[in-house]
């Protein structure tokens, strides 16, 4: 509701209005509410709760795009553990904690969507005030679906056999939770600035040719999920094949993979520039022509950046992943017997040892020669043809 009156010279319903501090249009241009050309009235409050890991938060952003389309005048709030990866267009980003919970408890929401089954997220969903709630809540201390729309996703999360039989990808499932049909909505991932590839390489005494294709090799998948790891010898073999084919293999990872990636680059003649902040890492991945990764955060970053992705999968249902037609899912030639297990429990063989280097190299080659792939233009064409 417009709060503009003769005595209250402000509009609290404006998307830009903060209340505790001046809004951006005022700081930038000195305008006041009475004659502000940026007035953007809102008519409802919507809250998304998705705490989760970074990758899980990123792959939820297509839902934000749909909500913005369905409710263009809504003020959209998002509660998460990692607000840094949220789209810039999210109106209010809150990091989960006491201060955020106190603020949310004083607000009435028109729509609240909780996509997490964590006890704290479900408990908060039960506590907060909203006309409509979707997703998951807490009943007698146990997480459960709020309504029939969330039952499918709930069941795939508690029964492995139901999960294995599932043919719906994650986006289909979370849109279904909200009562929508997924219509191809893409991830929303902001790249703040172009990564200075040449400058960083020069400072770290690494030679990079920006006119040759850069293949990002994301070698890790977290310390817990070792069942997904491809052998180091395979990464070295792939980097060597790529080098011989005129490409540049760029090893990617965080601080946890730093020592490993240094060793892989030294053994293969590949590139490694070190580890970076999350935003810099996103920028670095954006300079790659193709990304090779297991199921991990880098997979979601690649999808968000609309990069061709060669995805390694062994322990998950492959139907879970939507690559938007920009990649391939590769699985070992021997079946994985450790469905959804963080560590390999097969005493006869590790399935990831049976994902052949040649198989991966051929997939990268197909991706590079796909006429639909758009590559970074700076530094000249990186098309290998």
Strand proportion: 15-25%
- The total beta strand count reads 11
Largest sheet: 6 strands, mixed
In CATH, the homologous superfamily of the largest domain goes by the name: Glycogen Phosphorylase B
Low-confidence segments, given as residue ranges, are 371-385
The CATH architecture term of the largest domain is: 3-Layer(aba) Sandwich
- Give the ordered list of helices and strands: HEHHEEHEHEEHHHHEHEHHEHEEH
**Structural domain tally:** 2
Tally the helices: what do you get? Answer: 14
The overall average pLDDT, rounded, is 92
Output the structural class: alpha/beta
**CATH class membership of the largest domain:** Alpha Beta
- Strands in their spatial order, largest beta sheet: 3-2-1-4-5-6
Query: Outline, from the CA principal axes?
Result: globular
Structural commentary:
The radius of gyration is 23 Å and the shape is globular. The model is unreliable at 371-385 (pLDDT under 50). The strands form two sheets. A six-stranded mixed β-sheet has the order 3-2-1-4-5-6, with helices on both faces. A five-stranded parallel β-sheet has the order 8-7-9-10-11, with helices on both faces. It is 31% helix and 16% strand. α10 crosses α14. It has two domains: 44-177, Rossmann fold (3-Layer(aba) Sandwich); 198-368, Glycogen Phosphorylase B (Rossmann fold). α13 links the parallel β9 (290-294) and β10. The protein is an alpha/beta fold.
């Amino acid at each position: 509701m417009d709060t503009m009156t003769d005595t209250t010279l402000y509009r609290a319903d404006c998307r830009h209005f903060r209340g505790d501090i001046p809004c951006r249009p005022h700081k930038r241009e000195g305008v006041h509410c009475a004659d502000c050309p940026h007035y953007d009235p809102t008519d409802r409050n919507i809250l998304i709760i998705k705490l989760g890991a970074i990758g899980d938060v990123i792959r939820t952003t297509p839902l934000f795009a749909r909500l913005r389309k369905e409710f263009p005048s809504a003020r959209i709030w998002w509660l998460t553990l990692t607000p840094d990866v949220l789209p810039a267009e999210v109106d209010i980003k809150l990091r989960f904690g006491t201060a955020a919970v106190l603020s949310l408890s004083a607000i009435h929401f028109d729509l609240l969507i909780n996509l997490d089954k964590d006890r704290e997220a479900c408990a908060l969903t039960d506590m907060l005030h909203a006309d409509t709630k979707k997703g998951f809540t807490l009943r007698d201390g146990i997480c459960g679906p709020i309504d029939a729309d969330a039952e499918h996703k709930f069941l795939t999360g508690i029964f492995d056999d139901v999960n294995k039989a599932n043919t719906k990808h994650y986006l289909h499932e979370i849109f279904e939770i909200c009562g929508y049909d997924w219509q191809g909505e893409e991830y929303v991932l902001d790249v703040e600035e172009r990564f200075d590839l040449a400058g960083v390489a020069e400072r770290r005494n690494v030679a990079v040719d920006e006119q040759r294709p850069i293949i990002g090799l994301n070698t890790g998948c977290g310390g817990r999920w070792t069942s997904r790891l491809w052998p180091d010898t395979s990464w070295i073999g792939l980097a060597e094949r790529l080098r011989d084919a005129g490409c540049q293999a760029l090893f990617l990872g965080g601080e946890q993979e730093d020592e490993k990636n240094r060793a892989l680059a030294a053994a293969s003649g590949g590139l490694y520039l070190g580890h970076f902040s999350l935003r810099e890492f996103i920028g670095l991945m954006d300079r790659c022509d193709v990304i090779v990764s297991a199921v991990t955060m880098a997979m979601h970053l690649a999808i968000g950046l609309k990069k061709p992705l060669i995805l390694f999968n062994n322990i998950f249902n492959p139907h879970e992943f939507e690559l938007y037609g920009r990649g391939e899912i590769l699985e070992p030639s021997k079946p994985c017997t450790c469905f959804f297990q963080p560590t390999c429990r097969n005493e006869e063989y590790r399935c990831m040892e049976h994902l052949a280097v040649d198989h991966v190299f051929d997939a990268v080659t197909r991706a590079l020669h796909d006429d639909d792939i758009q590559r970074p233009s700076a530094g000249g064409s990186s098309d290998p043809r």
